[in-house]
Amino acid sequence: MAAAKRKRRRRRDASTEPGPGPPKSSVRPGSRAPDLRRVFLVPLVLTLGLLLLSLAPRVADNARLTFAFLAAVAGLMVWQGVLFARLSRARASRGFRVVLRPQHYLQALVQLTVFAVWGWYWRPVYDFAGLLLAQLIFAYAFDMLLAWSRGERYVLGFGPFPIIFSTNLFLWFTDDWFYLQFLMVAAGFLGKAFVQWRREGRRTHIFNPSAFSLGLFSLVLIATGTSDLTWGQDIATTLTFVPAIYLLLFGLGLVVMYFFRVTLVSGFAAAALFGLSALYGAATGVPYFIDSEIPAAVFLGLHLLVTDPSTSPRTRTGKAIFGALYGAGVFGLFWFLEAVGAPTFYDKLLCVPLLNLSVPLIDRFVRSLQSRARIRRLTEARWAMANLVHMAVWTTFFAAMTATGRTDGPHRGDMLPFWQEACEEGRAGACDRLVQIEASYCADNAGWACNELGAHYVEGRIVEPDAELALGFFARACEAQFQAGCVNLLDPSVVSRAPPRALDLRLLLRQGGLNLIDMSEPALYERACSHGWAFACERLGMEVQ
Amino acid sequence: MRLLAAFAAAGLILVGVWLDYRNQTARGAPGALESDGIAPASAEFATPSSELTGYRADLGQLLDALLLGFVEIPGGPFLMGSDPAIDTLAYDVERWSADRPQGVVDVPAFLIGRSEVTVAQLAAFVEATGHETDPQALAAPPLHPVSFVSWPDALAYCRWLEELLRESPATPTELRALLAEGWRVTLPSEAQWEKAARGGDGRIFPWGNELRRDRANFATGRPAPVGEVACPECVHGLSDMSGNVWEWTRSPWQPYPYDEADDREGLEGDPLWVMRGGSFADPVRNVRAAIRGAAGPDVRREFIGFRVVIAP
């Protein structure tokens, strides 16, 4: 039986390469071995490139990061060694087929632009460039060896670029856990190669490769409560450091929409999110998301994560439903994650694989809709079919949202005094959100926020009283040189409060991406006043805005 | 078969990651301090259960002596601050007011630790609570005064010690009674510290008014084990009130005249907390009983430690 299997494999190795290329019969047996050696030079060079990158100071200075690189190098070496031996024995050949697909290089360029601008305002992105390059090298070598192991010719192009960029726009592991990043990349390619179904007469992968690995790893990180092994939270929040980030993402999104006709996906996702957020705001008096009607990272997701044409519906109605479901999914997941106490930045990641799975259902639903003549006339009308028309509608919608302050610019959810007031007034979820926002600022060492949290846990009005937690927050406030925190730490039976210092305001008011580190104190207090901080207005002799 | 192998491989990877995670978290994930190049704490010194002769392993490595090494300072008035006419090394900040060089402060009775808190004592606290501290705080030999502790670290230690003394059946009856009356384990106030250091006669150094290099560890460049420098003339028999390490107090930095209040009105300035006694790195001027130093609460230095009081 084993012999039969080997025989079958040899036969497949020798005859089942898809795509153009010299017919197998034209290759003389004696000429195959040197070809194979030349072909295997490519993954070997890539692996050596990865090894070379492990000598970079950031990698060399961290034993665990070095281990991650060496483990990746070792894995690739063993794999290509075994594969080379096997193919040599079978006298099989492998090769490349160069295919440069616009959806790969255009997406990659758009993503690279996001990295470039984001990194300008948040330095860790540029510092990460070497590790991004390492992932790209690893991805090419891994994908190549995977294709050859499956008896296929490797399609050489820019395919790995959008997968790696897309993954890294949403999740990186910290240096100490970077081997998980390599595993995540590997999982994406394995999912693409093995988790497939037949769609419209051809086998194709079910999941968007980056969304598959992101979804899988997100689930594990949530279930094990280990999100702190990643930069996920920072990635989700630091995009807003870029001034006019929504405008930038919108502009880049138009490029993708124009070339790949995904306007309906992004547009309906955005419309669903804007609509649901507006409904929630109208019903409760508080915004649903904190920094915008759509968080910047979600806005990025609906342009660059969910828009993979090969894992979304092909019909226009299907795309619209797909987009709307993404918007609704993110909205629901945000609520769910918040309710279970998990980090909410996973909201945009988790629903993509589920949506990919629902594509046949959406297609079937659309077919059933189109069997009704009137609906078919509507969905297939010439005006509705034009992508440019869709883009024009989306542009108008985005312009309206921007004009009404729903995208870039100040947002009431970003203003702490708003949440303090809403909490005092007992508006739905406002106190929880206040505590959540203060916790986030406390984690950034805003002493004022830590002291407020400590006070909440002593007073027990908006959270369950917890003396230990309170002392922890007072200690943190004190270490951040916030004197009220120190006196509270000394005697928590009497809670003292004080307004934020300039140092705290530089953190509390950074919404919109302005660099407040060098902002003069008068300008800082003016900004604080415009954000509703009454003490700042008093100091300036101004009215609270 | 292939599917099975794939699942097995995935399972193995998951188990490996899980074991690595457990290992890392048990050891304490590599943190900022380690990555800054500060040496991790020595396991040898961080183990409080190790036998130290003359210390109580069951009571946080406190001294195995009457009242666990706490010494009673009787209540009553004492002279606080410096008179430059007597103490020519005095700093201006030690002057009581424009009119008077010194003031009289009435301090109720309290207990104070005979020695500065040791590395072994802090290690017992860290082991019992998991309190995160600078690894350097635990890196010195066990009987050295603890250093590299912030003001909140010192207060956290005091809270833990109070809980330990309240709950442990081994706590001496007298201490238990005081705690039951509402006495607290905390840092000394400036007045408590100064009274304990110079007694009621206003002496310049804990041993008297004469400069003596053999009575305190100062200007030597390195800390010494607590109580190593004998000082039979020192008031109340306390060790290292001068030199060895500066000692945190619970008093915020305020100009004299001294006010017992904790300054809840002035919360908007930069916080500074008073430390007393000077250190091994200081000249003689800084190890006088009236010396006043101050540091931000987050400061952790080789020359700053603390001792505790049990006070009403």
What can you see in these coordinates?
- The complex is a heterodimer of chains A (545) and B (312).
- Chain A is an all-alpha fold.
- In chain A, 67% of the residues lie in helices and 3% in strands.
- In chain A, the strands form two sheets. Chain A has a two-stranded parallel sheet with strand order 1-2. Chain A has a two-stranded antiparallel ribbon with strand order 3-4.
- In chain A, helix 9 crosses helix 10, helix 15 packs across helix 16 and helix 23 packs antiparallel against helix 24.
- Chain A is globular.
- In chain B, a hairpin with a 5-residue loop joins strand 1 and strand 2.
- The longest helix of chain B has 26 residues.
- The interface between A and B is medium-sized, with 26 and 28 residues.
Let me know the number of strands of chain B.
12
- Apparent shape of chain A: globular
DSSP helical segment count of chain B: 7
Major sheet summary line of chain B: 4 strands, antiparallel
Structural class of chain A: mainly alpha
For the biggest sheet of chain A, the summary is: 2 strands, parallel
Q: Which two chains share the most extensive interface?
A: A-B, 26 and 28 residues
Name the assembly state: heterodimer
What is the H/E order of chain B? HHHEEEEEEHHHEHEEEEE
Q: Report Rg of chain B.
A: 23 Å
CATH topology of chain B: paralog of FGE (formylglycine-generating enzyme)
What topology, given as strand order, has the largest sheet of chain A? 1-2
Low-confidence stretches of chain B: 28-49
Strand content of chain B: 5-15%
Rg for CA atoms of chain A: 27 Å
User: CATH H-level name of chain B... which superfamily?
Assistant: paralog of FGE (formylglycine-generating enzyme)
